[in-house]
Structure prediction request, 139 residues.
Amino acid sequence: MNQNYKFKSLDIAKNGQEKKETKTGDPNALTVFETGETKTIDFISLDGTRQNFTYAHYLTGWLGKDGEDRVIKIFFATHLVTIKGYCLDEIYNHLATLSLKMVKANDERYLKTLDEGKPFVTDIKITWKKEQGEIENNE
Prediction:
């Protein structure tokens, strides 16, 4: 009597490998954002400065326009992160599901290398809320 057993742990391991394989695409492709299971979000500015925040400190996000620019504002317990760019809806949707791992700003000259309608981040500004409050009180 031979019986074939299917172990759920083996299926999970295979699915994890498949996801990793499909995530890696063209190595020369421009990176704007990454998603996946995570506890933090990493922000990379144009000059290469990096700062990450834990989702435990995430309060809310906002997507809208600031003048002509599309903007996502992400409110953390101690900081406000402002992301400017084009077609930011997909990034915002991943933020809303807490699956956004990384956002990277890129020089606008690379905008034409992406397909139309794809997200593109031009600027990331991180402001400590205490500094923001001091500026508002002094004005």
Observations:
- The chain has one domain: 31-133.
- The chain is about 25% helix and 35% strand.
- Strands lie at 33-35, 40-44, 50-54, 58-66, 69-76, 79-86, 100-104, 120-128.
